[in-house]
Specification:
The protein is α/β, with parallel strands linked by helices. The protein contains 19 helices and 15 strands.
Length: 416
């Protein structure tokens, strides 16, 4: 028999495709129906920005708050010093305190676009687990917390098992990560009455550890919920593009490039992405996703506009669409295109067009740029680029030049 959720939040995430697993679906649904619940998702500060791969769970927190509940964004100022080994083939590089703090500041700017941290009784909280992890006494922690963990069980989790099966080293430092993450849940339950931890399905083992620890130590009834790990319909990991990670901070990826990423969505993904990454009603998402031929392009533009508006604001979305129209429909040079600015020193007597393609982010390497040219996929000012040995000098840059990789990726190069 199919269970129909009572709570607004569970109904929303089930309908829109956010739900993968839950430790006790019906009991959690009842808690959510009965009153305000506090939930958290943890984010380690491994980079200056979050990327598109994080956006699914940020939207999950947004729906959670919109349904009247209180979300916590837990910044991993402490756990980042250890590094999450889940499904990784190697150990993360260890970051210093200053870099971790800078990364947390960059990530916080993104959360502020999606969640309200002020005012209402369910205002979001941003906490840092360094607050309780940095001061732990090792012997007390081993005695009070470590005794609740079975090494046999920890080794059985798929995130760890996959690493060991490949005979890749798992350091003792990393092995402690899942204990620290479980302890976070216990602390948040004690401090904030937090009843729910959410995350991607790769975090299932870590989340279950936290649920078990909280029950064992203080007999607290808490829950875990995961979202599916998304791949695009052509099998690529969500959040990766030809140019690398699709960052959410505008300083690392321009709003135009972000908009363009969504505009380039594969036809088969449009309906699903509208449900997950926008607030467009589900029936409309289904209708737009079922369009065919040239009509689906209108749905992709709507998707790009909606997602970009949430992150960067309506003006940025409109500017990106206007730039795209200028570049694609009229063959012009849009003001908002990613721009590579060269100094006269950098230019010297001239720079090869291959180097410019790489520097502007249209290719990952010189080899890839040369292959692009050889395959007829490169253009210079909308004309086919056939000479990989072409040098660009000051005369050629008297006005900005436009480089293109295929029909959809463009960049400007100009002298500063």
């Amino acid at each position: 028999m199919t269970y129909h959720p009572k709570s607004e939040f569970m109904a929303t995430i089930q309908e829109r495709g956010f739900l993968a697993d839950c430790t006790d679906y019906q009991a959690l649904d009842q808690k959510l129906y009965d009153g305000m619940v506090t939930a958290y998702i943890g984010y380690d500060a491994t980079a200056q920005s979050l990327h598109v791969g994080h956006l699914l769970n940020i939207m999950l927190l947004r729906w959670f708050q919109k349904a009247g509940h209180r979300p916590i964004t837990l910044m991993g100022g402490g756990t980042t010093k250890v590094g999450d080994p889940s499904f990784r083939s190697d150990e993360r590089p260890l970051l210093g305190p200053e870099q971790i703090d800078a990364n947390i500041a960059g990530m916080g700017a993104v959360f502020a676009q999606y969640l309200s941290y002020e005012g209402d009784k369910n205002a979001a909280l941003m906490l840092n687990n360094a607050e309780w992890l940095d001061g732990l006494n090792y012997l007390d922690f081993l005695r009070d917390i470590g005794r609740h963990f079975s090494v046999n069980r920890m080794l059985s989790f798929e995130s760890v098992k996959s690493r060991l099966d490949r005979e890749q080293s798992l350091s003792f430092l990393e092995f402690n990560y899942m204990i620290l993450q479980a302890y976070d849940f216990l602390e948040l339950y004690r401090r904030e009455g937090c009843l729910l931890q959410m995350g991607g399905s790769d975090q299932w083992g870590n989340i279950v550890n936290g649920v078990d620890l909280t029950r064992r130590v203080i007999d607290g009834e808490v829950y875990g919920l995961t979202t599916p790990l998304l791949t695009t319909s052509d099998g690529r990991k969500m959040g990766k593009s030809q140019g690398g990670a699709v960052w959410l901070n505008s300083a690392m990826l321009s709003p135009y490039e972000f908009w363009q990423f969504w505009r380039n969505t594969t036809d088969a993904d449009v309906g699903r992405f509208l449900k997950l990454y926008t607030e467009v009603p589900v029936e409309e998402c289904d209708r737009l996703g079922s369009l065919g031929g040239s009509e689906i392009n209108g749905a992709k533009i709507l998707l790009a506009n909606e997602v970009t508006t949430l992150l960067h604001g309506a003006e940025a979305a409109q500017a990106a669409q206007a730039t795209a129209r200028e570049v694609f429909e009229k063959g012009g040079v849009g003001e908002d295109l990613p721009t590579l600015v060269l100094t006269e020193t950098e230019l010297g007597d001239g720079v090869s067009v291959v180097q410019l393609i790489v520097k502007s982010g249209l290719a990952a390497s010189g080899k890839e740029a040369k292959r692009l040219i050889a395959d007829g996929g490169a253009r210079l000012n909308d004309a086919p680029l056939t000479d990989a040995g072409l040098m660009i000098d000051a005369g050629a840059l008297a006005a900005p030049i436009k480089l293109s990789a295929g029909k959809k990726r463009h960049a400007l190069v100009q002298l500063g």
